[in-house]
Write a structure and sequence with these properties.
By secondary structure, this protein is of the alpha+beta class. It has ten helices and 21 strands. Strand 10 and strand 11 form a beta hairpin. The radius of gyration is 21 Å and the shape is globular. The structure holds flavin-adenine dinucleotide.
Length: about 400
């Protein structure tokens, strides 16, 4: 294969697809998207919780804060226009008295980011979620919704294909760059004028092949879920979340009623051995040793990482998950919970110079290439607004 195109995008996840959609709006008419898998949604974009977040958690001023609110609205409008699944179930964030201060801090963050949230009292909470812990106060997010991520990916792909200006090249891995504007793949080479890296968990590697972002390394975290047995689904009407530790980018064990009516508990964020280790030991490679090395270094040098790694690893045990979940829905019993096959990997970036977890998305630009790194949760929610920003501000 020898292809040429104006703009080459690596990765057909939600980031690559929404950027392609924005490029079409800008008049770019010759785009190739290379995707190493044979279908859409094999990785994070097809394996997430399907929650359209409302922008409550993120530090004001970050990309996440800025684009979650706008992205939520754009994705909703897209679902309405295309008649895709969207359930506006809302969400409550609950706590016992010991973390009321953190709940109020969340409210402050939400207000600063323009995210709609309402402090509600016990009576209002129990009207929304009758089986929730009866918090004296809770935070209600009316704009949180659930969607079917794979349906959205398919719809955007169809739109791009129908334009006649976007060529999907599946089963093709970007391997590196050769000389000027020539990408090497396992199927041959592709010449391009512009290059966009939207490779998800491999975005750091793709950037490194351009000599960019060498201080960033990926640490994969596995997100597994449990489910409520169907006759106990009534325990959760929408989404029930705890007040998270805002120093870490994880949201804690929570309940999500998916678009299919199933109620999921999770996801965990357990250190994984590979970027695509969805099963046990299914993605062991030479890199596993580096990943374990990175985990070990962070464990000893970063107190927050150590605390998160220790509490998350306990979530392998059903009893521990149950106890965490019972802090939100006290009526829950061990027989109410079953395993779920759903699993995703969060490719968390670490800045190796500072040994800190990177909390926001990263955009790197050099000449004709543009790289999106650390597009972790809530990147699906943010995607349409974020893509608009990337194309308007960085693509020229
Ligand atoms: C467990 C979990 C739950 C989540 N829940 C939510 C949620 O509820 N709401 C929300 O908004 N976000 C959520 N997220 C985050 C969200 O799913 C991701 O941030 C988002 O999907 C990332 O999209 P992406 O396109 O950047 O990456 P991906 O979806 O990973 O897409 C990247 C694509 O690039 C391809 N690729 C990689 N390397 C190459 C290469 N060398 N050559 C060719 N192709 C390549 C991959 O095959 C992949 O298809 C969750 C994530 C996880 C893991």
């Amino acid at each position: 294969m020898q292809l040429s195109c104006h703009t080459l995008i690596v990765g057909a996840g939600i980031t690559g697809l929404t950027i392609a959609r924005e490029l079409l709006k800008k008049g770019v008419d010759d785009i190739a998207i290379v995707e190493k898998e044979n279908s859409l949604g094999a990785h994070a974009s097809g394996r997430n919780s399907g929650v359209l977040h409302a922008g409550i958690y993120y530090s004001p001023g970050t990309y996440k804060a800025k684009f979650c609110v706008a992205g939520n609205q754009l994705m909703k409008e897209y679902c309405w226009e295309k008649e895709l699944i969207l359930q506006e179930t809302g969400k409550v964030i609950v706590t016992d008295d010991s973390r009321l201060d953190s709940l109020l801090e969340l409210k402050k963050r939400a207000d600063q980011s323009g995210a709609k949230s309402i402090i509600i009292d016990r009576k209002e909470l129990l009207e929304l979620e009758p089986y929730s812990i009866p918090s004296e106060k809770a935070l209600y997010s009316p704009n949180t919704a659930v969607f079917d991520p794979n349906q959205i990916l398919t719809s955007i792909k169809e739109e791009l294909t129908c334009s006649g200006k976007v060529n999907f090249v599946f089963g093709t891995s970007f391997l590196g760059i050769s000389g000027c504007n020539k990408a090497l793949t396992n199927q041959g080479s592709i010449t391009f004028n512009k290059f966009i890296n939207a490779a998800g968990s491999f975005a750091d590697k793709v950037a490194h092949s351009f000599g960019l972002g060498s201080q960033y390394k990926v640490l994969p975290f596995k997100g597994t879920y449990k489910k409520l047995v169907s006759n106990r689904n009534y325990l959760v009407r929408g989404n029930i979340y705890p007040v998270p530790d805002l120093r870490n980018p994880f949201l804690g064990v929570h309940f999500t009623r998916g678009y299919d009516g199933d109620v999921y508990i999770g996801p965990t964020a357990i250190p994984a051995l590979g970027r695509e280790e969805y099963g046990f030991f299914n993605d062991i490679s030479l890199e596993t040793l580096s990943i374990l090395g990175r985990d070990a270094v962070l464990f000893f040098t970063n107190e927050r990482f150590r605390a998160a790694a220790m509490s998350e690893t306990k979530k392998y045990f059903a009893k521990y998950m149950l106890n965490e979940a019972k802090k939100l829905v006290p009526e829950l019993e061990i027989e109410d919970i079953e395993d779920s096959p759903k699993v995703g990997i969060r490719p968390q970036l670490v800045d190796w110079k500072s040994k800190k977890l990177v909390m926001d998305f990263i955009i790197l630009k050099d000449g004709d290439s543009l790289h999106i790194l650390n597009a972790i949760s809530p990147a699906f929610t943010c995607s349409m607004a974020f893509a608009e920003h990337v194309v308007n501000e960085f693509y020229s």
